[in-house]
Amino acid sequence: MKVTSLEDLRKIKESAKDLTSARSRGATRVIIGMGTCGIAAGAREVMTAILEELDKRGLKDVAVETTGCIGMCQKEPLVDIIRPGEPRTTYGEVSPADAVRIIAEHLVNGHIVEDKVIGQTD
Prior knowledge:
Elements: H1 6-24, E1 28-33, H2 36-41, H3 43-57, E2 62-67, E3 79-82, E4 88-91, H4 96-108, E5 117-121
Parallel strand pairs: 1-2
Antiparallel strand pairs: 1-3, 3-4, 4-5
Helix pairs in contact: 3-4
């Protein structure tokens, strides 16, 4: 869209606000460690599995984000789940199959996958 007036700029601002408002409405967040260590350990495959599972289940109010090195290279791939009103849960050594299980158990049913947890913070 070519901006030729202040009104055009206001329209762009409003449409952008609609696109980004889910992030501020307390949507669930899934953060995948995608530093070089995470990628080498299989984080791309984990991210693909997460995106496919979210799509398969029709889960739209979930923000999938990536981050760089977290400093726990020995525990990669790392996946954080942040659900509104709950502690942040960090899962480690996540395989694509684990990722599917984490989506099903944690995101859908609210049950933490204890055998993959490496930490929780408020």
